[in-house]
Design goal:
Radius of gyration: 18 Å
Strand content: 25-35%
Strand order of the largest sheet: 2-1-3-6-7
Shape: elongated
Order of helices and strands: EHEHEEEHEHEHEEEEH
């Protein structure tokens, strides 16, 4: 089964190029030029990976990235920023906002396809393995014992609150 990739870029030439090269690499590809249509297309198309241009009209690619990472149904998506911005602060911002990778234009089709596959592998591994303990910053959630710790202090929760 082909993996589905959604391309979000306001430039039709970029969308056409990415669609062509990714199809040649074995992906099923859909493209969106208007950021306002992203969520509608996401619901219909259900991609496994999304390539997002950093600079979009009326909305930053970071805004789309943040929106997708907040929604539970899109958390397992591979999100990759594909942009001409090569400044370190732009890369760091995208990665801190939840991007799985950051690819600077120009790039080779083979490299982009390999990066997409790598991100999809990592995301699939993360979301399919049985986790007993989740750790983010100072927050630790023990799924077996139903205990939560914030900065090494137990947070007392009922079972309903824990769920």
């Amino acid at each position: 089964m082909q993996q589905r990739v959604l391309v979000i870029d306001d430039e039709i030439d970029v969308c056409d190029y990415l669609t062509t090269v990714l199809k040649e690499e074995g992906f099923q590809v859909e493209a969106v030029q208007n950021p306002d249509h992203v969520l509608v297309v996401m619901e219909k198309y259900r991609p496994q990976a999304v390539l997002i241009d950093y600079r979009l009209p009326d909305q930053s690619g970071l805004d789309i990235l943040r929106t997708l990472r907040r929604e539970p149904q899109w958390r397992s998506l591979g999100l990759i920023m594909v942009t001409g911005l090569s400044d370190e602060k732009d890369k760091v911002s995208a990665l801190e906002f939840g991007a799985d990778d950051y690819v600077v234009k120009p790039f080779s089709a083979k490299e982009l396809a390999a990066r997409i596959r790598a991100v999809l592998r990592r995301r699939a591994d993360f979301f399919t393995e049985e986790k007993e303990r989740l750790e983010v910053g100072g927050l630790v959630i023990d799924l077996k014992s139903h205990q939560v710790f914030q900065n090494n202090e137990m947070v007392h929760l009922t079972l309903t609150e824990f769920r």
